[in-house]
Amino acid sequence: MHAPLPPHPRRGVVPVSRDGARRNTSIDVIRALCLIMIFVNHVPGNPLERLTTKNFGFSDAAEIFVLLSGVSAAYAYGTKYGHGARLVTTLKIWRRSGVLYVAHLAMTLATLGIFCFLAIVHAKPELLEAINIASVMSEPATALVGVVTLGHQLGYNNILPVYAAVLLLLPIFLAVGERSLTMMVALSGAIWLVSGWFRIGFPNYPNDGVWFLNPLSWQFLFVIGIAAALHMRRGGALPARRDLLLGSIAYLVLSFAWVRIPLWGVDTSFGLPAVATGFDKTFLSLPRLLHVLAAGYLIAMIPQLNQTFRVSVRNPLAVLGRHALPVFLLGTLLSMAAQAWRIAHGSTALSDIAIVCGGTLLLFALAWFLEWHRDLSRSRTSAGSGQTPVLGLSTLVARSD
Questions:
Q1: Is residue 262 situated within a structural domain?
Q2: From the CB of residue 345, how many other CB atoms can be counted at a distance below 10 Å?
């Protein structure tokens, strides 16, 4: 028998409360850290990139972000999906997917504009060959069809399409999860395994291959996040077992050693498909999946770790994490501008640090502005309705999705 861990009232993920003072900010803070790391990693080669999670294990900020997105989607949609609300909730989910689709198209157009502008101003034609732009320049008609249908994605512009595609599938998983969360996870896992085993993915167009982040694979991580959150909302708890705790720690240590030594050249395939033994990001191979799940399990189950991320709702990281989409969009624009600028002008360690630090400050500034604007809007609404105005960031509750 496995010895259970001693019970702790704070263990696990706490649902987002409508009471700002009781809001669990750990999700916001971790999401904010992911947004910052994604921005840093999207300016490749800068010295600060060495500090991001991809240098300490098999997974990176993208996996953490998708897992948390699943948790947030459970609060935003999963708890509302039921008798009499299935259609309304489904339409809200698909509307959100549409928002992400439009946002992705806007980011793609803006990225093309940035690279084309600097290519013209600085006479740097190599800018028009970077980050998968060459096809747009050489075959604009077919490439634009690919952009609109999401078959042609620019480099570093891959996260929103997979999230939008997964949201389209979400009502199916919620319908299954209404009967059984175990069946929902099993269905999702089967799709992940088949797509990875047989290399099935959403096709690129006009280029060959599949999306860089395959939604048929990444939906599994998203659904795991949903299932964990809904399980706890239904009165369940994460399994508190010492073998899982020690196994997770051991796996994270092994992953750290593997990356730092490094041991990337060691063949551990044993003749199995890459989805089971490789480190493929496109199909979310098992080592990457287990790494992010092990880290998430430890954060959820060890009170000292969990409490580290629970801060005041006024904390800058909590504010940043509550405005994930606009912050992510700004981060994408800034990272694309930084990449284009570095190609046109070159870079040094000092200039890279200045670019990354300056861009990060702009992300915080945007988040604080959005928080202030929402606070002001809600105060005016309360005053106009004859209610007592409620001021202060602690009273605000951001959308979970």
A1: yes
A2: 11
Read off the pTM: 0.89
**Nearest in space to 70 (alpha carbons), one of 163, 132, 137:** 163
Domain assignment present for 391 = no
- Measured over the CA atoms of residue 191, residue 193, residue 196 and residue 199, the dihedral's sign is negative
pLDDT in tens, the chain (401 residues): 444 444 444 444 444 443 444 567 899 999 999 999 999 999 999 999 999 999 999 999 999 999 999 999 999 999 899 878 999 999 999 999 999 999 999 999 999 999 999 999 999 999 999 999 999 999 999 999 999 999 999 999 999 999 999 999 999 999 999 999 999 999 999 999 999 999 999 999 999 999 999 999 999 999 999 999 999 999 999 999 999 999 999 999 999 999 999 888 887 878 889 899 989 999 999 999 999 999 999 999 999 888 999 999 999 999 999 999 999 999 999 999 999 999 999 999 999 999 999 999 999 999 999 999 998 888 877 666 555 444 333 333 334 45
What DSSP character marks residue 391?
-
| Dihedral of the alpha carbons of 285, 287, 293, 296, in degrees to the nearest 10 | -120
Residue 23 lies inside a defined structural domain of this protein: no
Range of the domain at 78: 47-310
Number of domains in the chain: 1
Residue 373 belongs to a domain: no
